[in-house]
């Protein structure tokens, strides 16, 4: 049986972050973790979604994917969060979910969980690093242990973002390529390794 539990929780409009989330989930599973892949609830009105073909198509394709709940946060040893950038910040959909975690935070149930994050932006300087660090600000409040990918693997010298995996989608027209998929796979694998070490260490303390 897997000795570690990982929740990959994300928001994606046109599918880029979803593709990265899937790759993260697969990598965590291959590293021996039990995984829950969860999307957060959509907040945008149907008219807005319908006005963008890529957004509408992705919403239809992922309509049966389970939505994230607070139980997923409490269940997991490792939290992997992904969001597209919105003016250098995570999307409101993910932020709204994070904001509901107050009861778990207040009860100390998020302390010592390992956490890592990733993103996608429409343009090369669309706020990838600030989006990741904005998500990470939540982890500081929760008392989590942050695990960035750094440059701890050769793929990072190609991907180039030590804060977390990021992708440039060219306004949703370009899906993540092999470099980005390999980068998020490494990030998830590294996070599983660290989370397992933390869990083992705490259990024997």
From TrEMBL:
This is NAD(P)H:quinone oxidoreductase. InterPro entries: Flavodoxin/NO_synth, Flavoprotein-like_sf, Flavoprotein_WrbA-like, FMN_Rdtase-like_dom. Residues 6-191 form the Flavodoxin-like domain. SUPFAM superfamilies: Flavoproteins. The keyword Protease does not apply. The keyword Ribosomal protein does not apply. Keywords: Oxidoreductase. It comes from Saccharothrix xinjiangensis. It comes from the Bacteria. PANTHER family: FLAVODOXIN-RELATED PROTEIN WRBA-RELATED, FLAVOPROTEIN-LIKE PROTEIN YCP4-RELATED. One of its GO terms (molecular function) is NAD(P)H dehydrogenase (quinone) activity. Its EC number is 1.6.5.2. Belongs to the WrbA family. It holds the Pfam family FMN_red.
């Amino acid at each position: 049986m897997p000795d570690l539990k990982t929740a990959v929780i994300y928001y994606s409009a046109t599918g880029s972050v979803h593709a990265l989330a899937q790759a993260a989930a697969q990598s965590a599973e291959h590293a021996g973790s039990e995984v829950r892949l969860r999307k957060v609830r959509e907040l945008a009105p149907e008219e807005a979604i319908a006005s963008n073909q890529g957004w509408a198509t992705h919403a239809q394709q992922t309509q049966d994917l389970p939505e994230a709940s607070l139980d997923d946060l409490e269940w997991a040893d490792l939290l992997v969060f992904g969001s597209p950038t919105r003016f250098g910040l995570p999307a409101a959909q993910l932020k709204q979910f994070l904001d509901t975690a107050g009861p778990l935070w207040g009860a100390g149930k998020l302390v010592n969980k390992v956490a890592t994050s990733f993103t996608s932006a429409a343009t090369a300087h669309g706020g990838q690093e600030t989006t990741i660090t904005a998500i990470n600000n939540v982890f500081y409040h929760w008392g989590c242990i942050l695990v960035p990918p750094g440059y701890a693997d050769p793929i990072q010298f190609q991907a180039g973002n030590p804060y977390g995996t990021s992708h440039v989608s060219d306004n949703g027209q370009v899906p993540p390529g092999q470099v980005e998929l390999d980068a998020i796979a490494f990030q998830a694998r590294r996070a599983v390794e660290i989370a397992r070490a933390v869990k083992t260490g705490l259990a024997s303390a």
